[in-house]
Amino acid sequence: MAADNRYEEEEVRTDDGSPITKPRPIVRLGIFLVAHSPVFSVVFSAAGVLALLLLPLLAKNTYISENALMPGSARSMLSNRDASDGSKLVKDIKNFRLNHEGQVQRLIGKYMSEMVAEVYYQKFQPEGNQFHPLHFFSGPASYTLLRNVSCASYGVNVVGIIRAPRGDGKESIVLVTPYDFINGGDYEDLSLGVVSSLFSLLSRVTWLSKDIIWLVADSRYGDYRPVAAWLAEYHTPSFKVSDQLKCDELNTADNFRRAGTVAAALVLKVDGRSERFEDILSIYADASNGQMPNLDLINVVNYLAVHRQGFHVKVEKVVSLLSSSWLKIVGEIFEAVGKVAHTLNPDWKFGIPAAEYIEGSATLASSLYSQAFGIPTGPHGAFRDYQVDAITLKISPGFPPDSKARQHDFFLRGSQLLEGTIRSVNNLLEKFHQSFFLYLLTSPSKFISVGVYMIAFALLVASLPMVAASLYVDGCKALTKSTHNSAENFKSWKWLDAAKQVFALHLLGFIVTLLPYFICQVPGQHSPRNRSIMWGTTSSLLLVTFVTIPGCSPFSSRLHGTNWAILKSVTISAAFIGLCLMSIINFATAEIGALLLVPTCLLAQPIKPALRSRRVKSLLGAFCSMVLVTIGFPVIFFAITKGLVGEGLVGLSLGGEFWTWLESLWAWKSATYLYIGMVHLPCWLLCVCILFHPS
Amino acid sequence: MKEKKKDDGEMAEELEKNSYRFWIWSIASMIFRFCIILFPENINLSSRPELSTPLTSLCRLAEGYWLKQASMSPYSGSMYHGSPLLLSLLGPLTVHGIEGQWNHHLCSLVFVVSDILSAVLLRATGQQLEKAYRLNLRRLGLLKASRDRGILPCGDIAALVYLWNPFTILSCVGLSTSPIENLAVIVSLYGAVTRKQLFERRVPLAAFGLIMATHLSLYPATLVIPLIFLLGYGLDAPPRKLFLQTRDREGEPGQDKLTRTTQLPFLWKTVLHFVFWVLVWSIYVLVLCSLSLKQYGGLEEMFKRTYGFILNIEDLSPNIGVFWYFFAEAFDFSRNYFLIVFQIYMFLSILLPLARRLKHRPCFIAFVYLAFSSILKSYPSVGDAALYLSLWALFVNELTDMKHSFFIFCGYIGFSLLSPVMHNLWIWRGTGNANFYYANAMGYACFQFMFVEESVSAMLNHDQALKKATAEMTKN
Fold first, then answer.
1. Do A490 and B421 touch (CB under 8 A)?
2. Do A577 and B429 touch (CB under 8 A)?
3. Hey, which of A313, A576, B87, B114 has its CA 20 to 30 A from A609?
4. How far is CA B78 from CA A418, A463, A671, B84, in A?
5. Quick check: B39 contacting A, CB < 8 Å?
6. Each residue of A313-344: pLDDT tens digit?
7. Using CA atoms in the order B212, B213, B217, B222, what is the torsion angle rounded to 10 degrees?
8. Domain tally, chain B
9. Which residue segment(s) compose the domain that B187 sits in?
10. Where are the transmembrane segments (chain A) (predicted)?
């Protein structure tokens, strides 16, 4: 909100025509900034981009902020016996699979109850994600819909609860292993083995003060859905008798058990063999809308995995960036600058090696990318909706699944890692609150906090209010000159016409955003391509209607005498408000959106005078703004990103792809969708209007 | 003469056209409200802290009604804090419907009707004010017939601002009782501004509106000052000195009648009439309340649970005001001190100085008071903002030169959109905390202050400009 402040300072002076004899220094600074806004907007935008590139350099090492966690301070109590329990379960499951069909749940349930756990089975419906554009602002509880269910397909979760001997049953820790009961592979069995080794230990220990819930989620219908269904039932019990009970195989009636508020959740997945010899542990943390779990949870896992269990820990990267040459050049420049600075003053240590910089940038890019989509990267995302800190640990073992000796060792190490983490969380007396919630990772042990990454964004958008103010002043002057009589009456309300147009286009954006809801209601099966065509045509029809309505259309402004400067000023203000709001909801979306929208808005100018003047500079400006506007259209930007990531596709399938992508955004209630529809699209349209303004 | 007639004819035509347009837009706003009411479960507006406060929430009212039906005091527990009359009026509409959901459609209908009624009354008030504005300019000799068209139909504008303000629409469909409170305030202004005959005001109506508004939400009690000025001195006018100057200039026998009307004395009789009716209505309301609360502790209980609740700021659940957080943080031993300081602040530093400075513009004082009370009241909602914003629109003619209008507009939009985001961040995501939401509330309050301040200074500037213009004319 620093930028907002500056806005205030500027506007203090820009609106009024009357000179104040002695303005305060801060006001004078504002006037100075506004008067030289072209220079400063270029400087600020460039600084914003530079600050974004500098972020990997500014990353700090992570540290355990909450003292109570004390990771690794207790000796692990896990013995070979527990590990062999896990091996036994894995073997039994394999045998069971060979002899019987289905009902592996029973077997797992039997194992759990042998370990003195309370066991129950929970049924859930596989689908449940519906498009509801307004769900962002409501809590998770308000959209549990009970519809008619079919007996044909439902999933069954197996849940076991160990009651803590020292606890009062008010808090719990959840372990999740997604498992496909029908066709689970050997690696999935390993995840069950790890957790059952741990479970066998936890059923005996005396230090537990939080109940342990082991959820074996039925991952036939995706990893996320079963966990979300279980959480919904856990937190918001439905008292209506569900139809699912009627079609019963496993007795699930009315025995859903709970174990207090969930303090933390760990999702364990074992998949695929790693290319290295050692076991690789990947940490996934992004939940919906760019929310992250508390950094301490990641720190604990990272610390234990690296320093106690010897896993190779990594977080996701954009692989294509690792080999990019421009990033390498940037990294080398930063390295050289760092070295020079170090020779000047040995206390300045901000340079990092180029290779490390590239690694950091690739991780940062991946972090930004997944946060910007607002789609969770794993089942842990479901927990964040209930304010529970959760992460997914994906282990890729460095051995083939049939190697018995290494399997035992793997169970031992894996469950020791989980044991240590649980022991730390067990120590907590409060929720995780000590460390950061808003951060970006550049490696498992390095992070950039909100205070640092916000600078890049603030610099980028700081130019918007400046330019808006200076355009406003110019526009008002021009308007007073051109229409002397009527303008005199409304000295300070000249912006109303422009605001009406901006509002009309935002309204249009809002309607276009809601349209898919109605398109989905159209009866009959339609391919995504057809749906996107339907959407496109209705939207364009609406746009045409809006443009023909007098008063709303930006093109009819000749009649009203609005000049484009004021229209642009109001547009920029709207973009500024939208971007600032979005930066609070989901920083990554706002940052990427600002990278697109800020230059487009700043450069948008009517091209007619530029073509008429035939000067190289203005022609170049017009060309640049045309290119930016072309890139800024969401569909084209989507295609370009796809191309950059490596899946080149241009052509008719684009519409369908885009629709599918948007569907995934709705499914996760991503605010990015709202941003695209209600901020980006209207501002983009307004920029187009300014480009073709008949001035 | 002929020309003037022609002008009048054109004006009448324009007026008809305007009124035609006004009705179309108000019906459209009604339809729009019904559309939103029909899709309530998607939005769940009634649980927003911006819309329903402990005083205005209809859910609480339904609870109070239920308690009363069960022969318990509606004030038992700490659910309901509104008026017992409202309980009898709206309570039966909130009883259980078919599917276990209470029948909010009927209540919504009541709110929509009260919104429309407020708009109509506001329009009549505005027309009266516009007439007065025209008359005053003519008396000062600043208005020629040809420039008459530059004057905006402020009644229509205010009514449409009221009907189409997102704040009004939200509080109407968001099941809060603020539309009814707003209606009471507007009724009192309407009663004081319009006349039945030439000199006879609708004094009983004004008194009724004032008493009802005070009864419902206490803070409109401050309106007693502007209402007395309205009834005593007459409608908003430029400062009296100007008229005296004009009279000096035009010391001709023909103008005698005009000047006599400009120098209206304070009409003690009307004011006493008003005071009498205020007493009558307040006794009436108190009797009704005591009848309805006879078994449940009577009037004492009501005063404690409604006005006591308002003045003591007992409920510290988050709202868009500036007090809840402060009193949640304040130490217990200093609580009373701060309560007194804050409530007195409003009276001493705002009410009296403004009443002195702006006594020639009583309606504008009413706007300023309502705006200040919406900033500084204990449980504000956006419904209060809706009321003062539409009252502000009554003065569009005077406030054309308001400074920083665009900036303030952007601030209002930004902060109203930020509020649900901050609330979400705090309550649902857990990544923010109360400071985030409170910071938003303070920013919103700042912009409201700025808005009021700019309006007042624009009004004073307008008076200055009039003074200058008359001075020039006198010179000439």
1. no
2. no
3. A576
4. 47, 50, 37, 15
5. no
6. 989 888 888 888 888 999 999 889 888 888 88
7. -130
8. 1
9. 2-305+359-398
10. 29-55, 450-473, 502-520, 532-550, 570-598, 619-640, 672-692
